[in-house]
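In this supplementary section we document a worked example of the pipeline. Step one takes a protein sequence of length 167 as its only input; no multiple sequence alignment statistics are reported here. Step two produces a three-dimensional model, which step three serialises into structure tokens for compact storage. The input and output of this example are shown verbatim.
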Amino acid sequence: MKISAFVVSVVALTVAASPAVAKSSQDFIKDAIQGDISETMLGRLAARSGSSQEVKDFGHMLVADHTKARREAAAVARKLGVKPPTHAMVAADAEYAKLQVLTGTSFDKEFVWYMVKDHQTDISEFEEEARAEDGPASKLAEKQLPTLHKHLEHAQSLATTLSASNQ
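The serialised model returned by step three reads:
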């Protein structure tokens, strides 16, 4: 029994100390497309339901930019032999449901907060794929990074403005 516990402990420590396994190009491109679908869906909601013109405009920007990004990613998916997903990420569906019940500045703050966090994660994943230099998916990641940075900066600016308006 002591040996089994020891083996389990060693295995657990080895797994915990192992570096994270990078996504395959196929998994990256699927996630990128789902992300684009998610951003488009949430952007449309913000364009309709945002209480400030700035949030509505940001929603329109997300729809336009992520619609274009989705077309580009779908072309790469076809090159890689990947069937492009047609649904949003589960987290985005949950955020959509949360946002649907909010109004006014509560909606704006929640939407902007989610966009900051989501784009920080996206940028990290796209940078990792770009560094992999693994063909068309890496080239796409590198190409789309400036737009993701623009979105993050815009969301952060809106977050600052919304926070200042409450004080």
